[in-house]
Amino acid sequence: VENGVFKAAVTKGGEKIYAKACILTTGTYLDSEIMRGTEVVKSGPDGCVGAYGLAACLKNLGIKMFRLKTGTPPRLKKDTIDFSGLEKDEGSKYPLAFSYDTKDYIPFEEQLPCYITYTNKNTHEIIYKHLKESSMYNGIVVGTGPRYCPSIETKLVRFSSKERHQLFLEPESRYTDSIYLQGFSNSMPEEVQVEMVHSIKGLEHAKILKYAYAIEYEAIEPLQFDKTLMLRKIKGLFGAGQIIGTSGYEEAAALGLMAGINARNYIENKPGFILERDEAYIGIMIDDLVTKGTKEPYRLLSSRSEYRLLTRSDNADMRLMEKGYEVGLNSEERYQKFLERKRELERGIEVSKHIYVGNNKQVSSYCAELGFEKVDPNTSYFDLIKRQGVNYYKLSQLEDRLVKLDSELSYKLEIEVKYEGYIRLQLKEVERMHQYEGALLPSNIDYHHIDGLSLEAREALDKIRPGNIGEAMRITSVHPSDINVLLLYIRNYSKKNGL
């Protein structure tokens, strides 16, 4: 790093790899330690080498770090498990995928099932007996763990009244005999883990292929990143995944995608690619991280979105396909296919507004089956679809004038129509927020010299450096009175500078 700009990555052997940009995706390897009982080993996951020199380098550059913790359950040998008395948990018979482009579904009969078992009184007695031997409860673990997937020891401590806890036996691959014991992560000594596993129904003779462990690792305080996921103080150095405080699942994958796009844009001197809170859950996550920060592994929940009706799973393509095309992630063929589907959906909605039920006996009969009183012939199909239980796909089979759509587009149309009033209200909320986000804060603003700001707000604003009033409003330490002060400051600043 020279003059606040990334120049090269230096290998352990001293070799320099020069680049215009670098993305740090260290996962749980950054200054990592594995813990079982009183045993602490400097190691990455599964005995892999951790990243220790990098952690020291970042600290030397003045990057603020904090320590997080996660864990993993034991892996069991499949042919040592008695599945005969366990509940089978099969996959979905209806083909599900992240994209309608997916065609190569694994047939249902070829899918590998999971199985369900439970802890019991004996399991709990073993855990309580050895609780002080767990790394979580003997004082060794200092990092903050994930709130929403606690270890089995923590489940017992937090929910002591529960007589059992559900566990899933998940095949890790169709090509290996390893079974993942979901819900049983722990940091007990190996001999205690054997006793715990053997106390569970179906696992009385199970062989442990890999023992569970807790792992601590370093992360960068996310307030030090901007919305493109680049460190504010080191141009060209980006981060994604657990290094900026998230968990390592969908959150990390999405951040990797965004960091990759923005690293390329940075190299090509293009504007940053930023998704807003009303456009995508990715936008919500990044905004949360860089304006509020986190003290624990961040998980993205639907409750974090104030615009849940706009950021639905069914309209992901309508929200994001065009943006993906603009940054080069979607092919021309895929984009044109999307545009055709979008036109069909819009046509379906528009046609439904301008044709009426009339004396269609089949539709009247269908409505009677749903328990409706006689439908007024002057009711538009748009208004009929709004009624509870009315299915557009079924309706289009009974009315030739309606646009014929596949089941997926029919579902999209139903949601757009049924929630049309609520969606319209939410769009007004978005418009109001965009007005605040249009009130830009000067990059050189000195918050410590603005009269009327609370001390708490001054410190938070100076640390995070929001780009506009909307972002400032979402900072935990900034209160409505502080926002009024900032709005007045912007007004005076604009007058003074003729803006």
UniProtKB/TrEMBL annotation:
Protein name in UniProt: tRNA uridine 5-carboxymethylaminomethyl modification enzyme MnmG
Q: What's the cofactor?
A: FAD
* Subunit annotation: Homodimer. Heterotetramer of two MnmE and two MnmG subunits.
Task: Give every tRNA uridine 5-carboxymethylaminomethyl modification enzyme C-terminal subdomain domain span.
Answer: 417-488
**UniProt xrefs under Pfam families:** GIDA (PF01134), GIDA_C_1st (PF21680), SAM_GIDA_C (PF13932)
Which molecular function GO terms apply here?
flavin adenine dinucleotide binding
Q: What does this protein do?
A: NAD-binding protein involved in the addition of a carboxymethylaminomethyl (cmnm) group at the wobble position (U34) of certain tRNAs, forming tRNA-cmnm(5)s(2)U34.
